[in-house]
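Long-time lurker, first post. I've been practising inverse folding by hand and with some scripts of my own, and I keep getting stuck on stretches where the structure tokens seem ambiguous. Below is the full token string for one chain I'm working on. Before anyone asks, I'm not after the true native sequence, just a reasonable design that respects the backbone. If someone could post their per-position residues I'd love to compare against what I wrote down in my notebook.
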């Protein structure tokens, strides 16, 4: 079943006294389309109420980061389930008539729903939606038409991980005049760094990811064992922005294991890029902690921060899968009717057919476990969506066994958008 959610700024379902009042609350609508059935449209009610529940669920997840390893963890999960259970009642229960006998949901979210993994919705029988359905995401239902028609890149996998954030770069040469950089402004370079710093509460340093290289090397080994792919690995100083921008041929798989960041608009007050979501999210790469070399005053070609705007200019035409094993990689600025502007939209614009990304800060160890298992299962014959679901379920079950709770912080942050096959 395709569930396409639409943020409607004008209430299209209700007339009051035969005329529209001066102001009406915005609503969410959902269009449900199942094979061999007529499409249905359902009004889900006041959008502000649903958005408040999404914001509360995300707040509870972030608040649980430091206490999820404590005896309070089962209570934290129970409190979160109260909120996600209400979201289930508002977002899924109204389309129950379309879900009889269905095992797969393809969801096109809108507005704040872009920041909600539907997998974590708590059902009435005290399970999570991921335990009932295989779920993947698209920007729009129209995307389904292109799933089987696009060509793919040659069989190369590029693994980028464990960047040396403290690497001191040398000045990069100016680009050819025939291929001018879109990022040739010192102001843009300064705003990239200021945005990343404000995101981290004023801290100017990315910290090393303990499991990043182990995760990346295990994935590279798994990919090599298929004998179908040539594998390249970039670590340390090689895991840099300049190398990615310099790619001439798109890889079949691009795996990025690093820090992601997203800067809320109110934190960018005073910067000219405050209203450009593609400058407010990005990835930290080699040299992100080091001051840019003098030449970058005139050419911001490699300052260690790969913004979503720069991602959109990468050559990923035909890349089958981009995996962003990075905190908050899927977060961007929600825009009604336009999906999430940020790394998600940027990688799709660059040509990637599908992405795996996170919607919150996933603990490092669980991220490494999930990613290694995801590739093992996918390369073993599962679809991308099936492999991601099975990997998350394994961590959920392991958490219940070892920790006596299954808090979504550990397993629910990663989603698949695009072609699920």
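-- Answer (accepted) --
I ran through it position by position. Result:
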């Amino acid at each position: 079943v395709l569930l396409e959610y639409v943020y409607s700024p004008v209430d299209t379902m209700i007339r009051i006294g035969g005329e529209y009042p001066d102001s009406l609350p915005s609503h969410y609508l959902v269009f449900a389309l199942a094979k061999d059935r007529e499409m249905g449209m359902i009004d889900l009610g006041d959008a502000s109420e649903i958005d408040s529940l999404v914001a509360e669920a995300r707040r509870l997840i972030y608040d649980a980061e430091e206490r999820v390893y404590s005896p309070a963890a089962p209570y934290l999960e129970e409190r979160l389930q109260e909120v996600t259970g209400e979201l289930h009642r508002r977002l899924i229960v109204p389309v129950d008539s379309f879900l009889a006998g269905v095992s797969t949901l393809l969801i096109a979210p809108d507005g704040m729903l872009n920041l909600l993994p539907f997998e974590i919705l708590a059902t009435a029988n005290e399970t999570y939606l991921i335990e009932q359905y295989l779920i993947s995401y698209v920007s729009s239902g129209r995307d389904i038409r292109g799933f089987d028609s696009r060509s793919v890149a040659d069989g190369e996998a590029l693994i980028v991980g464990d960047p040396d954030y403290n690497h001191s770069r040398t000045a990069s040469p100016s680009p050819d005049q025939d291929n001018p950089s879109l990022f040739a402004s010192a102001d843009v370079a300064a705003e990239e760094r200021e945005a990343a710093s404000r995101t981290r509460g004023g801290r100017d340093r990315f910290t090393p990811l303990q499991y990043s290289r182990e995760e990346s090397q295990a994935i590279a080994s798994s990919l090599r064992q298929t004998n179908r792919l040539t594998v390249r690995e970039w670590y340390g100083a090689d895991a840099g922005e300049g190398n990615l921008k310099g790619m001439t041929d798109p890889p079949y798989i691009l795996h990025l294991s690093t820090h992601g960041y997203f800067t809320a608009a109110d934190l960018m007050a005073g910067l000219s890029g405050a209203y450009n979501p593609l400058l407010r999210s990005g990835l930290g790469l080699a040299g992100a902690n080091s001051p840019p070399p003098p030449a970058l005053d005139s050419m911001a070609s490699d300052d260690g921060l790969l913004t979503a705007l720069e991602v959109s200019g990468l050559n990923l035409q035909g890349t089958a899968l981009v995996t962003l094993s990075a905190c908050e990689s899927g977060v961007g600025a929600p825009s009604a009717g336009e999906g999430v502007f940020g790394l998600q939209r940027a990688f799709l614009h660059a040509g990637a057919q599908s992405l795996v990304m996170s919607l919150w800060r996933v603990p490092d160890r669980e991220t490494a476990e999930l990613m290694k298992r995801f590739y093992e299962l996918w390369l073993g014959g599962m679809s991308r969506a099936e492999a991601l679901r099975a990997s998350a379920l394994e961590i959920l079950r392991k958490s219940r066994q070892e920790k006596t709770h299954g808090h979504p912080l550990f397993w629910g942050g990663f989603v698949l958008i695009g072609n699920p096959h």
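A couple of notes from the structure itself: Confidence is low (pLDDT under 50) at residues 172-186, 295-300. The two ends are 16 Å apart (CA to CA). Happy to go over any region you disagree with.
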